[in-house]
Prior knowledge:
Distance between the termini: 45 Å
Shape: globular
Largest sheet: 6 strands, mixed
Strand content: 35-45%
Amino acid sequence: MNDIWHAVMRRAAQEQWALRRLLRDRRGILGISTGRFQNTSAYSVLYDAGTGTLAWTPNMDNGNVQLRTASVTGTLVTPSNAEKGMTLILIIVQDGTGSRVVTWPTNFHFPGGTEGVLSTAANSVDILSGVFGGTNWLVALSKDHKA
Length: 147
């Protein structure tokens, strides 16, 4: 085990970004794939991005499952720090007023080419899921989840 740890640390020293990811993701089980660290946990902890505008940039360094309560209409920004093959699950909750509308990034591609439209009822819950292909996100919107 000690030899494996030393090999991992040597690799991290060669690639600074790998060391940063290792330090950020101490809770996950780390594996090596094509020379890069990946979280091999069976799940990702939900990141609560708080309440605010939908003109927001999901940061993949915060995890791939993120919650945003929409209090203002806006244009979602393409997620930052995404790598090819990453998955994203955005849980979007309308605030107590509702009627918040999102404009999706141009590199979000929906089934059939028709962009998803959020549920607008107060406190409604929609889930956007997608896979990053390196340039574009292939996404689908699941609407109006009930508790």
